[in-house]
Amino acid sequence: MRSSLLRLAESVSKAPLNLTEASSMLYPPLPLYRRLLRSHRNLPTVMRSMGDDYVKSEFRRHKEVTNPVFIMGFLSQWKVYLDQLPQTLNETYKGKRLDPTVLEKMSGEQLGQLYELMHAAKGVWKPVATEGEEENP
């Protein structure tokens, strides 16, 4: 049973999660949460709003988790995300494709959340129709 928990909490990178190494690189939950919200200040307003809402809901949803392996995986993945965000207003955030091995590891619920996020993101960037024009469905 323990080995399956470690496999589920593996990092999305190619190398497996090393708990001692990861704990030395990770921030505690509250400082990580604050850094994420601060780094979102460098994003465009719409992306910042969506990112802030997502970070807040995920941290709130996982507030009561007690499994240390899951917590390490959760914090390490948010740290990876933090490292990818632009550090200054002059930098632009460029997304990247999701690794296929990550998709294979996702549960049905996670895939559903990813699908909902994709549609929410498309709705944010949908061009606004001008008067007299109808939007295409």
From TrEMBL:
Source domain of life: Eukaryota
Compartment annotation: Mitochondrion matrix
Keyword DNA damage: no
GO CC entries: mitochondrial intermembrane space; mitochondrial matrix
Keywords linked to the UniProt accession: Chaperone, Mitochondrion, Transit peptide
GO biological process, one term: mitochondrial respiratory chain complex II assembly
InterPro entries according to UniProt: SDHAF3/Sdh7
Family annotation (Pfam families): Complex1_LYR_2
Primary location group: mitochondrion
Oligomer status and interactors: Interacts with the iron-sulfur protein subunit within the SDH catalytic dimer.
PANTHER family listed in its UniProt record: DC11 ACN9 HOMOLOG, SUCCINATE DEHYDROGENASE ASSEMBLY FACTOR 3, MITOCHONDRIAL
Protein family per UniProt: Belongs to the complex I LYR family. SDHAF3 subfamily.
Its biological purpose: Plays an essential role in the assembly of succinate dehydrogenase (SDH), an enzyme complex (also referred to as respiratory complex II) that is a component of both the tricarboxylic acid (TCA) cycle and the mitochondrial electron transport chain, and which couples the oxidation of succinate to fumarate with the reduction of ubiquinone (coenzyme Q) to ubiquinol. Promotes maturation of the iron-sulfur protein subunit of the SDH catalytic dimer, protecting it from the deleterious effects of oxidants. May act together with SDHAF1.
Protein name: Succinate dehydrogenase assembly factor 3
